[in-house]
Amino acid sequence: MKRAVLRAGVIGCGNVAGNHAAAYRDLPGVELVACADVDPDRAGRFAVRHGAAASGPDDLFDHGLDLVSVCTPHPTHEAVVTRAAAHGAHVLCEKPIATELGAAARMVAACEAARVRLGVAFQRRFWPAARRIRAAIDDGTLGVPVLGHTSVLLHRDTSYYTADAWRGSRAADGGGVLMTQAIHNIDLLQWYMGEAVEVSAAHAAFRHGEATEAEDTAVATVRFASGGLATLAASTALTPGLGTRVLVSGRTGASAGLTEYPEGTEARIDLWAVPGAETSAPPFGTGLAADPPLSRINGALAPFHTLLIEEFTDAVRQGREPAVTGREAAKSLAILTAAYASAASGRPEPVPAPHEETTA
Ligand SMILES: NC(=O)c1ccc[n+]([C@@H]2O[C@H](COP(=O)([O-])OP(=O)(O)OC[C@H]3O[C@@H](n4cnc5c(N)ncnc54)[C@H](O)[C@@H]3O)[C@@H](O)[C@H]2O)c1
User: Fold this and answer.
1) What is the pLDDT of residues 203-256, one digit of tens each?
2) How many separate domains does the chain show?
């Protein structure tokens, strides 16, 4: 019999974990019971702050959890998610699902075999502006999307790449601005435009090259199965950062765009170029803003984590798939896999099948 109140845990008590804890506190029908970290001091402080029991990663599941949020660094996601699945806990994993497609496929397979749900935290899909554009595609207002653009023009201090041992190494992080920041926008683009089939990309390290072997700047073009085309420009080397933008034009000729500026604020529709309903807003409002600290950027995302977690817990209760499944999250990783391959080969590269099981 299903419990009335879902018992939740958090694994990895760093920057983003507070957003998950806040959602479990604020949502009815779910409570944060326990948290774990490889660093016991971090787990202890987080437990006190959020009224949960501190635990080591191995003991966490002794607390009889229904679900866990995985908020550990990207390269650990596979091991942590598969362990949670083996304990029968539903899993909400932070993005990116993994840094390579084989790991993502194994995570999906492990959760399916254990009959637990796997959701991935692309909380920007829950911006009302993002959903309005999706609705305008679904109801035919825009028509089939044929042209997309996203810019992810951000600021990070070099210290961002040096403060935590796992950041900035290609082996650990799997990449730079594409893997860690732009993946949110690539997820939105593919949500709007459908299956991606080919990517051409180039990247460089213009500003943080001393601190990271991964790219701090990248450009790409993406071709979709529909025949649609999209471009991307992404960087963490700008001061001040210029926020993020997604723009989609459909076969009807109508266009819609959203802006997240400054980074971490709720995106708003900045362009609604639909005949008879035209509106536009300047992307930078009253002017450029100073770059907010990372803690404020992450904190400002919390309301959208709450919406995503509400949808995920509803899915668990109702025994259905969540809005952003592991399979869905693997699609943006497949586009990135092709982008990195293209940057290395200098040629357009096909987007690999996101769900192919590999032994890698
Ligand atoms: N959805 C978003 O907008 C968003 C925002 C920030 C971070 N993230 C993602 O969340 C993840 C974590 O990022 P962060 O900035 O919070 O990192 P962080 O370094 O601040 O925190 C990670 C924590 O995990 C712990 N940890 C590492 N390996 C572990 C393991 N095997 N078991 C248990 N604990 C372990 C570390 O000790 C640390 O406390 C990343 O994958 C990142 O991409 C997503």
Assistant:
1) 999 988 878 888 999 999 999 999 999 999 999 999 999 999 999 999 999 999
2) 2
- Looking at the structure, tell me whether residues 154 and 245 fall in a common domain: yes
Q: Which domain holds residue 98?
A: 6-124+304-323
Output the domain CATH number for residue 84: 3.40.50.720
For residues 342 and 348, the answer to whether their CB atoms sit within 8 Å is yes
Q: What are 164-193's pLDDT values in tens digits?
A: 767 767 777 888 999 999 999 999 999 999
The minimum-distance atom of ligand 1 relative to the CA of 36 is 33
Within a domain: 352: no
Q: Of ligand 1's atoms, which has the minimum distance to the CA of residue 167?
A: 19
Tell which one of 10, 45, 82, 94 to mutate to probe ligand 1, the residue whose CB is within 8 A of the most ligand atoms: 94
| Ligand 1, atom 7, residue with closest C-alpha | 16
Q: What is the CATH number of the domain that holds 271?
A: 3.30.360.10
358 — pLDDT class (breaks 50, 70, 90)? very low
pTM tops 0.85, yes or no: yes
Pocket flag, ligand 1, residue 297 (CB < 6 Å): no
pLDDT at 76: 95
Residue 279 lies in a domain: yes
Residues 80 and 25 in one domain: yes
Do both 67 and 109 map to the same domain? yes
User: From ligand 1's centre to the CA of 72, what distance in Å?
Assistant: 3
Q: Is the CB of 19 under 6 A from ligand 1?
A: no
pLDDT for residue 136 is more than 60: yes
Q: Is the CB of 15 under 6 A from ligand 1?
A: yes
The answer to whether the CB of 42 is under 6 A from ligand 1 is: yes
